[in-house]
Amino acid sequence: MGKVLLIESSRVLRQAITLFLFPEHEVKTEEEIEKISPGALKDYDLLIVDGGGLREQDRLTPQLTCLLQSCKTPILWLEGNDGSPPFKHEKFSLVRKPLEREALRSALDQLLAPPGASKEAAQSRGAAAKAEAPEKADGQRQAEGSQQEAFQFVDLVDVVEGEPSSRRSKKSQ
């Protein structure tokens, strides 16, 4: 589980991205980057910044750009189709808006991968997990089948067709 700081001014996008990241990541959201102290950025595994939103609101200042560039935390930059990244960073990924699930997922995997982990290792883990899932499902079905054989079920037709004794006495009176 990674700790993610999401800086997004749009409430709808904040909620959508938070839900997308849940439950694998612990997400803290902020509307304004100015509210965050520079030292607090190191407490997070990933920083997601809506750069396009900052540009639209004229809040992408040179000071903010320097702060983000000097930050050691990986940055996922959200940008419109016409924007470009305002700085270079060691661990930086750009995702174009409107956001697409696969583009966002691959950028997250790239930025949150542990150092030394290769793409092939990540792909082989994903393939192994997919192959393991059907085997688990088959095993669960077999276990459920043996549990059902151990119990003796009551046919509901027998229960429904019989009338309760209290109703019979009321009808006869």
Structure description:
The protein has two domains: 2-112, 3-Layer(aba) Sandwich (Rossmann fold); 118-151. The protein is built from seven helices and five strands; from the N terminus they run E-H-E-E-H-H-E-E-H-H-H-H. It has helices spanning 11-21, 51-56, 62-70, 101-112, 119-150, 156-161, 165-172, and strands at 2-7, 25-30, 46-50, 75-79, 92-96. The chain has a five-stranded parallel sheet with strand order 2-1-3-4-5. Helix 1 (11-21) links the parallel strand 1 and strand 2. The model is unreliable at 124-133 (pLDDT under 50).
Key features of this structure:
globular, five-stranded parallel β-sheet, Rossmann fold, 5 strands, 2 domains
Secondary structure topology:
Blueprint: E1 2-7, H1 11-21, E2 25-30, E3 46-50, H2 51-56, H3 62-70, E4 75-79, E5 92-96, H4 101-112, H5 119-150, H6 156-161, H7 165-172
Parallel strand pairs: 1-2, 1-3, 3-4, 4-5
Total of DSSP H or I helical runs spanning 4+ residues: 7
Biggest β-sheet description: 5 strands, parallel
- Overall, the morphology is globular
The proportion of residues forming helix, as a percent range, comes to 40-55%
Mean pLDDT rating: 77
Rg value: 27 Å
Helix-strand category: alpha/beta
How far apart are the termini? 69 Å
Second rung of CATH, namely the architecture of the largest domain: 3-Layer(aba) Sandwich
Care to count the β-strands? Answer: 5
- The CATH superfamily of the largest domain bears the name Response regulator
Q: What percent strand?
A: 15-25%
Encode the helix/strand succession as letters.
EHEEHHEEHHHH
Q: Which parts are unreliable, with pLDDT below 50 for 5 consecutive residues or more?
A: 124-133
Question: CATH fold name of the largest domain, please?
Answer: Rossmann fold
Side by side, the strands of the main sheet go 2-1-3-4-5
